Amino acid sequence: DAEITQSPRHKITETGRQVTLACHQTWNHNNMFWYRQDLGHGLRLIHYSYGVQDTNKGEVSDGYSVSRSNTEDLPLTLESAASSQTSVYFCASSGRLAGGTGELFFGEGSRLTVL
Amino acid sequence: GNSVTQMEGPVTLSEEAFLTINCTYTATGYPSLFWYVQYPGEGLQLLLKATKADDKGSNKGFEATYRKETTSFHLEKGSVQVSDSAVYFCAQSGGSQGNLIFGKGTKLSVKP
């Protein structure tokens, strides 16, 4: 079965370190998204990509970057981790854009703690 | 801008009680509307959706009707079970980046 997987599922790091969260999907979806989930804020969009070599900033992109070298992967990098980036991160993909009633498929999340 | 507002939780119910979780949206145009569910320790998964006014989405005993006149998409279930304990997110397709716009989520706890 096609799926979307994230790794690591749990990560503890120190302030200032670079961290990369991996996201891999086997649906061959063009569209991939990274969200963070925080109490009181719900899900907020960090970065997204519509295809290989395409990356775009979402509403909370400061301190994060992504790259899309193939269809399957969209790694999220925290250049210099800050305590404010302690959160649960979700990767999602879709074969059609949401405006076309496309459903998002989510990974199981990566819980990041920055000390 | 486009947004989704849903009732704040947590909501605690006894098994077999009736559930309503309110959701309203603001949007330019007519977005598709979704309810996602997140079980403990898992990612979000689609529960139901509706793509146009007066459509009713349904799944696993849950229902929601797209009401254009009240810009609402309330989630209902006639008799909840302990296994329905989860966080429920209302969402719309009005994101300018082709993404979904989510509400803040409502945590439901069902007691036996």
Structure notes:
- The complex is a heterodimer of chains A (115) and B (112).
- Chain A is mostly beta strands.
- Helix content of chain A is 0%, strand content 47%.
- Chain A contains no helices and eleven strands.
- In chain A, strands 2, 4, 5, 6, 9, 10 and 11 form a seven-stranded mixed sheet that branches. A four-stranded antiparallel sheet of chain A has the order 1-3-8-7, with no helix packed on it.
- In chain A, a hairpin with a 3-residue loop joins strand 4 and strand 5.
- The termini of chain A are far apart.
- The relative contact order of chain A is 0.32.
- The model of chain A has no long low-confidence stretch (mean pLDDT 91).
- Chain B is mainly beta.
- In chain B, the strands form three sheets. In chain B, strands 2, 5, 6, 10, 11 and 12 form a six-stranded mixed sheet that branches.
- In chain B, a hairpin with a 2-residue loop joins strand 7 (56-59) and strand 8 (62-65).
- The chains are: A mainly beta (115), B mainly beta (112).
Q: Separation of termini of chain A?
A: 37 Å
Rg calc of chain A = 13 Å
Poorly predicted tracts of residues of chain B: none
End-to-end CA span of chain B = 41 Å
Shape of chain B: globular
Total DSSP helices of chain B? 0
The percent range for helix content of chain A is under 10%
Strand count, sense and closure of the main sheet of chain A? 7 strands, mixed
Q: Strand tally of chain B, please?
A: 12
State the helix count of chain A: 0
Q: What's the multimeric state?
A: heterodimer
Order of helices and strands of chain A: EEEEEEEEEEE
- The arrangement of helices and strands of chain B along the chain is EEEEEEEEEEEE
| Proportion in helices of chain B | under 10%
Mean pLDDT of chain B: 92
Shape of chain A: globular
Determine the strand fraction of chain A and express it as a percent band: over 45%
Structural class of chain A: mainly beta
Strand content of chain B: over 45%
Q: Number of DSSP strands of chain A?
A: 11
